[in-house]
Design goal:
331 residues, alpha/beta, 12 helices, 8 strands, 39% helix
């Protein structure tokens, strides 16, 4: 499968339609049905994120056969282990014989109670620690990583850090990963306003939940929650991180430019030229190693890649296919 294989009908080529339909409720229900049909055994898995941090994952094992390996799936910002794309990708991978762990980042998927500190996008250390814990506890075969949007950014940073922590990753595959946070913020501010409003609403709800659980730590008022995305992010950075400025915070989790050049783990990247959230220029300017494959589709929106009127998804098929085939140089 290649990005050039994605040819939606003309009426499906609008980038906003692709983006919205990608997370449509009917696709979410299909993902739930497919997971149920897989008859996999699923359990909650509390992973050690280091320094007392706990991250919750959903671990699914295919029924009646030995697994080919383990795939760790990472969701996008304000998504969860039960996001539509996570369920659909997991169902595909289970059908291909893999164990799947759908990880919730801190403060995602109703896990606000597990940790006192607020989530922010530079918390890569706890995801790396959780992946090491997962590999040690399961030990059932090679570990691969898949991710979407911000989860794709985390997956690529996890792959960058894997050799230094002794984590043997077979490969990584990501869909519409965030590369340059500063550019993405600007694209949302200047683009279709519904996306910015969507993320603002989800983040405000998350912050309210944190305030309810830990009122002694978070006494911010509703005036803070009324802030727009950029000033709200600035507030979070100044009061809940050590970065001090928005620029340093964004730079802390950027993987733009030449930052992926040091990747030692084989990587596959799928994005769309018409993504309304993450500018395609970020990918055109990225310097990638020979072991990385970048594929840019003409259409797809942001994590959409809806193929037809039945809302079948190219993205989850692509990700499962990439993680199912042998990685370059590994057999």
């Amino acid at each position: 499968m290649r990005a050039s294989d994605f040819h939606p009908p003309r009426w499906l080529r609008n980038r906003h339609l692709q983006t919205v339909l990608g997370s449509a409720a009917v696709r979410g229900r299909r993902g739930a049905r497919l997971l149920a049909a897989a008859a996999a055994h699923t359990r909650e898995l509390l992973l050690d994120g280091g320094d007392g941090v706990r991250l919750l994952g959903l671990h699914s094992v295919p029924a009646g056969r030995g697994a080919r390996g383990v795939v760790l799936l990472l969701h996008g910002w304000e998504g969860s282990a039960d996001s539509t794309y996570m369920r659909l990708a997991a169902a595909r991978l289970l059908d291909d014989g893999f164990e799947v762990v759908r990880l919730n980042f801190r403060d995602h998927g109703q896990t606000h109670h597990l940790n006192e500190g607020l989530f922010h996008s530079n918390l890569i250390d706890e995801v790396v620690h959780a992946a090491v814990d997962l590999a040690a506890r399961l030990g059932t075969g090679p570990l691969a990583v898949g991710g979407y949007s911000l989860g794709g950014n985390f997956a690529l940073r996890l792959a960058l850090r894997a050799p230094a922590v002794g984590l043997a990753l077979s490969q990584v595959a990501v869909v519409c990963p965030l590369l340059d946070p500063a550019r993405t913020m600007l694209a949302m501010e200047q683009g279709f306003p519904a996306y910015l409003r969507h993320f603002e609403a989800r983040w405000r709800a998350s912050l309210r939940r944190k305030r309810e659980l830990y009122p002694e730590l978070y006494d911010f008022g509703d005036d803070v929650l009324a802030l727009r995305m950029r000033p709200l992010t600035q507030w979070m950075v100044e009061r809940n991180t050590d970065f001090g400025t928005l620029e340093r915070y964004f730079d802390g989790y950027s993987v733009a430019g030449d930052r992926l050049a040091a990747l030692q783990v084989p990587a596959s990247i799928l994005t769309a030229a018409d993504d309304p959230v993450i500018p395609v220029e970020d990918f055109l300017e990225a310097r990638l190693p020979a072991s990385a494959c970048l594929e840019i589709s003409r259409w797809g929106g942001h994590c959409g890649f809806v193929e037809d009127a039945a809302l079948n998804g190219f993205g989850e098929r692509w990700l499962a296919e990439r993680l199912s085939r042998p990685a370059p140089g590994r057999g």
